[in-house]
Amino acid sequence: MTPPKDATAVIRSQHRDAFATLPFADDQDFRDANRGLLAPLEGPVLAADGSVVWDASTYDFLVGDAPDTVHPSLWRQSQLASIGGLFEVVPGIYQVRGLDLSNVTFVEGDEGVVVIDTLLSVETGAAALALYRKHRGDRPVKAVVITHSHADHFGGVRGFVSADEIASGAVRLIAPEGFVEHSVSENIYAGIAMSRRAGYMYGAALARGPRGQVGAGLGQTVSTGTVSLLAPSDVVTTTGHEEVVDGVRMVFQMAPDTEAPSEFLIYLPDHRALCAAEDATHVLHNLLTLRGALVRDPRGWAGYLTETLDLFGDEVEVVFASHHWPTWGNERVLEFLTLQRDLYKYLH
Prior knowledge:
Blueprint: H1 9-21, H2 28-34, E1 37-39, E2 45-46, E3 52-54, H3 72-81, E4 85-90, E5 93-97, E6 104-108, E7 113-116, H4 122-136, E8 141-145, H5 151-154, H6 163-168, E9 172-176, H7 179-189, H8 191-202, E10 234-236, E11 242-245, E12 248-254, E13 264-268, E14 273-275, H9 298-312, E15 318-320, E16 327-328, H10 330-345
Parallel strand pairs: 7-8, 8-9, 9-10, 14-15
Antiparallel strand pairs: 1-4, 2-3, 4-5, 5-6, 6-7, 11-12, 12-13, 13-14, 15-16
Helix pairs in contact: 7-8, 9-10
């Protein structure tokens, strides 16, 4: 591999201009990303053979101001995305962040817990469940809800539940219409090429550091463990559909062909909390991925976020997603969703 080089004079000048132009003094995102921390992550996650699946400490270099070799916005985003641990979103809703590219959310019910998204790998999923149970009690999983058909949201499912538990009805697996079709087409039919290009896209082979891999925007990088897939027991097809699992009320909003071809958002009315899946995160999401996933429709995406505002905007008090950190307070939530909607609406 070619040794990394110093930043050129042109690059250094561009980075200085960006730092001088953008509002780096605003630390609200850092306050939000740290809010509600209950416990830090606990060391590297290992596979059965002892190989390292995930090690958050490889990003410990992300301190201080951005070096010349890294755009200051990427440096800042990577600092935020590397803030990991078990967090309380609101009482009854908890997230493990920084243990994979994506997040896992735990919604506590009457006796057990509903899991929303499962990370990419079985090993990181199991580690997230263990961290949650260590600090919130050994609650049984009553349901797993998968927001969309990308592997970093369903691949860890066997770290939370077995195929027998789903088949017996002991645990429900809820997913949007078209989930299996699109999960299989992207990750199995096109899996080899898709995985290779994803390695390029995320810089997975690069050494961590200011001259190598710094972060991937949505998170730091992808874990390297076992990816699993289970067929859902329940498929949601219509907006407004409501499910109650272990006392947890969930209202679904279908959002197909947005960030994923099969996707829904989830409103939790008893918590006044919105799970935005991957349709509203703290980035301008790519529309054409370098790995070759289906091209996203920005017009349709913006339309569904407008519908989100219409459906839940009057009462929602917190929005969280399958990546990044939550936003609290109705006024800030509406501003966040509106800006996200407008990013895609007026992209062209």
